[in-house]
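User: What would this chain look like folded?
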Amino acid sequence: MADDSTLLGRMRTGTAVLGDVQRLPGYSLLIYEGEAGQLNDLPQPERVAFLADLALLGEAVKRACSALDPEFWRINYSVYGNSWEHLHGHVFARYRWEPEALRRGPVWMYPDLRDERYALGERHAALRAAVAAALAEVVAEDAGGPG
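Assistant: Here's the prediction, encoded as structure tokens.
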């Protein structure tokens, strides 16, 4: 499912990976570890746990990307499954350097979102390391429970 070039870490409900296209640096996914085609296939407790893990991944992306780029703006989340019918969630970092018309809309508005120029590669090693380290931190903080 994930190889070493994409793996960010294992979570309670799945595997966090860096997306294979980095049009918006930090794009990551949480791939559910079990068998489910969509969020509503899960029993309520597992659904809540998956969404909590997705939020933790978002927090990790936020920490890493805001440290790497002063133009970091916010995190967007989405869960679809229309083209790959296995439960997974998307985490997108958004930036102030994005063109206004595209920044204000969904990431799918980018006409070059999947352009080869943005393919995950060696140049993303520092980004992957930063998100993976931040993910380890937020998971450890979450395991500590309420303070």
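Helices lie at 44-68, 100-103, 125-143. If you want, I can go into more detail on any region.
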